[in-house]
Amino acid sequence: MPKLKLSLASGLICVVIGAAALFGVQSIMKATSSPEFCVSCHSMSHPQAEWEGTVHFSNRKGIRAECADCHVPHEGIDYVKAKFVALKDVWHTFVTNKLPDQEAYEQHRLEMAQRVWQEMKESDSATCRSCHSFEVMVVSEQKEAAQKMHKLAQETNQTCIDCHKGIAHFMPEMPVDNAAALGELTKHAGQFSEGDKTLYNLVMAPAKTADGAEIRLLPYAELNDWKADGDNIKATLKGWQQAGAESVLYAALGQRIMVGLVSDEAKNKFTVHQTVNDKVTNSDWKEVSVEVSMPKTAVTSDLKSLNAFGDNLNQTHCSGCHAAIGANHYTANQWIGVVNSMKDRTSMTADDVRAVTIYLQRNAKDMVGGAH
């Protein structure tokens, strides 16, 4: 009997100790998920200030997404794992002092952001989906652009973080080596042979008419019926001009895919083949052509490399805040407004903007075949 009592007492003590331990662990887990705990490290004062300036902190609906809501899985082994992984932050704060000030934080911002983006990608943005769900979205009440992007996301199995980077914290500076990409492109300068029917202008460059009038050709400008002339080529430049706005040469009727900028001296050098009234723009358009001359080194027959350069610009500069949008998502004319609305958020030069715009337009959904 005494042994039974001892066993019961021991068992009861174990239960009490276990319950106390469980309660203690749960309390610690909860306490270490609070915003107050998260920002108790001085290095977290920087992201705290950023978060407090977003709708995730304060909004008209009175709903607040706190640190753990976004950065800590809400259940299961992933929740426990996240807590153990977070111990490294304590180590770096009190031992290595990895982020002593704002400057150090900025140096590591990209590294930290990419790690979080990858974790969210791998979890299919589980913490985002604890509040947001395609199933309960009233898509018809969203802005037109949001409707299109959410439809595209569902069709292509994208996850929240593919598009919604930088919504609670500032975006890091994204390293972009445009010079290397352009250098790779210019390797193809002057690469063509007699059997190539069409040559393409590589970067913005001047072409001359027979009497020296200048037309500044944009990337992708097509040159046909060409022949070599020493270090130059002579070729036929074709396109469309909108009546009353002859200073710009476009690639197609009613579609503002720029081919060249026409000087005043060159405006009357074109041969007009036909005039067509375009109902969309409600104006007359003239199909025209002109003979031009330009250096061999300014052109290539390698359209594949030109498209690779345009795609690289799109993937590199247009995926920092959201997933890069496929060229066939918008029409050729729609792409002008889309790129113009986003260009100031990137580090693209004016030449880059022109190149990526024309690339996207040439491969837009209303272009024949969707790829050119």
UniProtKB/TrEMBL annotation:
Subcellular location per the Swiss-Prot or TrEMBL entry: Cell inner membrane
Membrane topology annotation: Single-pass type II membrane protein
CC annotations in GO: Gram-negative-bacterium-type cell wall; plasma membrane
Annotated heme 5 binding sites: C318, C321, H322
Post-translation changes: Binds 5 heme groups per subunit.
UniProt entry tagged with the keyword Cell wall biogenesis/degradation: no
UniProt name for this protein: Cytochrome c-type protein
